[in-house]
Amino acid sequence: QVQLVESGGGLVQAGGSLRLSCAASGRTFSNSAMGWFRQAPGKERDFVAAISWTGTTTYYADSVKGRFSISRDNRKNAVYLQLNSLNSEDTAVYYCAASRQRIELVQQLAIEDFYDYWGQGTQVTVSS
After folding, report:
1. Count of other CB atoms within 10 angstroms of residue 101
2. Which helix (H) or strand (E) holds 49?
């Protein structure tokens, strides 16, 4: 069992930065791939970024490549998402997710059903 709590969201001006954190509890965190998804108002939840349990593999949605960066610290049971060059289209609730499944194809990291546990989300609002 893994419990996830996101933090770090808030209101930021376009072009600004935020760093989201996801604190995990549970003995299986270090063996879990972690992902970030987001859901904008009136839209479906979309994949943002993911990282393997070793941290050696990362995967990003095309819309955030070069602007967002995912990392993890297994000693602290935490995963982070650095958001840079934010624009209004980045406004959404950001969710952290954990998967205990084995990664066979990196594209699996972008699929919601790959993840077993979800946090409650943190709101990011970008003002123009």
Report:
1. 13
2. strand 45-51
Neighbour-count burial of 37, counting CB atoms closer than 10 A to its CB (0-12 exposed, 13-18 middle, 19+ buried) = buried
Cβ atoms of residues 81 and 94 within 8 Å: yes
What confidence tens digit (pLDDT) does each residue in 11-46 have?
999 999 999 999 999 776 778 899 999 999 999 999
For 112, the 3-state DSSP assignment is helix
pLDDT tens digits, one per residue of 67-119: 999 999 999 999 999 999 999 999 999 999 999 888 888 999 999 999 999 99
Dihedral over Cα of 39, 115, 6, 84: its sign: negative
Of 1, 64, 60, 66, the residue nearest 31 (C-alpha): 1
Euclidean distance between CA atoms 110 and 74, whole angstroms = 21
Residue type (1 letter), 121:
G
